Amino acid sequence: MTTLTSTRPLKPAAASVRTFEVVGSHAVSPGFRRVTLQSTGDGFEDEFEPFGHDHWFRLFFADVGQPLHLPFGAADGWYARLLAMPDAIRPAVRNYTVREARRAGDRWQLDVDFVVHRDAAGQVDGAGARWAQRCRTGELVGLLDQGRIFNADEHDGPVLVIADESGLPGVEGIAHALGDREVTYLLEVPHAADRRALPAADVRWVVRDGGRPAGASALDALRATRVDPGAYVYVVGEASFTLAARAHCLEAGVPKSRVDFCAYWRTDRVRSA
């Protein structure tokens, strides 16, 4: 996740770097792989509260065949602790969304959908996607809860959600949380098979033309849509697309205070999903 974010996130009351275990993984569609993580009883159970919506977290993982070392401690200072670790043992860290959180006895299980980005040669691109493709049951990772970005709790008007595939897991959570509210979803995915059944009436899918930049087709759909100045707008996805969509909504009269956004990745630097 890049630094291009809104400024009104909802944070957990308490959060620390905790250890999780991979308990399953499988392909969901051509563009997604789902990994199920389970807490290990090291304190996560005492501090975690599911936010729903686009609840996100930081995932720490080691290279293939390497032991996992984590910057244990509270959320404050996690990055300084990470940088203080020797290069040889410092884990990779990427940001992901909780698709579903559920109890498994006295533990928590989290389903996490990873976008399987591919380069021009068709190879899996990005450290997180490669990890999701090769992870095995029993493998340990680290997790730091971060709360959620979507924040229309005090808005009772229409909602407009705009996202590419990297935002889809969070959008699915948002759709389940909002129920029958007046929401329009403009969603771009790389493959028709990546579309999902959402509990919403107005879902407009756009399947990307392989020759176009990520988000370009969703922007076309947005420009063809009347944006209600009274709406709450949520935009997530590739950085250039996210900024362009936000700018369009501001030009349509939506105030900055009602536009939450996050750039999950950049075309030239795949990092998160």
Automatic annotation (TrEMBL):
UniProt xrefs under InterPro entries: FAD-bd_FR_type, FNR_nucleotide-bd, SIP_FAD-bd, SIP_fam, SIP_rossman_dom
Sequence ranges assigned to domain FAD-binding FR-type in this UniProt record: 15-155
Annotated TM spans: none
Superkingdom, natural source: Bacteria
Molecular function per GO: oxidoreductase activity
Short name of any one Pfam family annotated for the protein: FAD_binding_9
Gene3D superfamilies: Nucleotide-binding domain of ferredoxin-NADP reductase (FNR) module, Translation factors
Protein name, UniProt field: NADPH-dependent ferric siderophore reductase
The species this protein was found in: Promicromonospora sukumoe
